[in-house]
């Protein structure tokens, strides 16, 4: 049988591909990659935004405070009012050796700080220097409280971000200047820019922090303590020592050690554990949805390549007749599949990165990015590798069908 090469070339030149189907299939892969990368980046940004609420707060900590008793004990009726004292700090240090930091807290709300003609509402906090181990400050100017402030009864303070901006709208270092709070003058030694929402008795940015001993005298609080914040030593969980801490305080104040509502012990480990479990579930769901969408796109690529092979039976037969080997046909089909998948997938990655970058730019404060919505470099590399593998797998079945076509059958199909 004599073949007209020009005729075959004309047929090859006039053969058309099903472009609409290819576009729809490519869009499926594009959308799958876009969803996967966007969800991963969005989940990372959302996690950072939530973690900002607890920024600087120790994850192995607990907070203890007094509540009216809910159980009768030692001749006392339930509903008794009581308060912790400074000696409870020493008791916890001595009787609970698993604790690393024990820091008392005093609070006073409804205060007003003034400087010159400027005024700012604030809350007062009486703390010790070791409170930094519980909630790490973010010093913008100056320093935090130190041991010499306590020993020498210095009238010093550390002001929060909002108080600083209200009293010093022109900016600049306020350290060394005197502010007045509740008719008492304090020397500003630092500005704390912490902005987390995990606050103990008031927001940090609206607080004026002074030495605890100074606040006891200024507000005539005696040796009372409103709260006690503690952190555990490495390897010790708060769950394992919560009952022990409650028992130490309960025995000192004649309260039933089983009265969990009378002596509140808020374990922050539980809160952080819940957040970790939440985001582990969210990440699993993101991967499940994203990979499922990718697989759906890959199946679409395989289907469209099967249709393409069917429609190009004549072309494949002609190529076989003029010398193309099964390996050439296999390479052509798989290459087309990989290219279709890769182009659509890379476009999806690019578009999702642009969207995530816009989200990141929208979450800035004072020129600082508050949350990063981008995916990691190796995550993008992994997506590219996955796309390549899916492209090869999607092309295997169509390639096998193409290799099974005999030249004579293909010519007869024409």
TrEMBL record:
Q: Which residues form the signal peptide?
A: none
Task: Name its cellular compartments.
Answer: Cell membrane
Which UniProt keywords are given for this protein, alphabetically ordered? ATP-binding, Cell membrane, Membrane, Nucleotide-binding, Transmembrane, Transmembrane helix
| GO CC annotation | plasma membrane
Q: InterPro entries of this UniProt entry?
A: ABC3_permease_C (IPR003838), MacB_PCD (IPR025857), Macrolide_Exporter_MacB (IPR050250)
Q: Name one Pfam family in it.
A: FtsX
What are this entry's molecular-function GO terms? ATP binding; transmembrane transporter activity
Q: Per its UniProt entry, which superkingdom is the organism in?
A: Bacteria
Task: Provide the membrane topology annotation.
Answer: Multi-pass membrane protein
- Bilayer-crossing residues are 21-42, 284-309, 329-355, 375-397
All copies of the MacB-like periplasmic core domain together span 22-247
Q: Where is the ABC3 transporter permease C-terminal domain?
A: 289-407
Family the entry assigns:
Belongs to the ABC-4 integral membrane protein family.
Give the protein's recorded name: ABC transporter ATP-binding protein
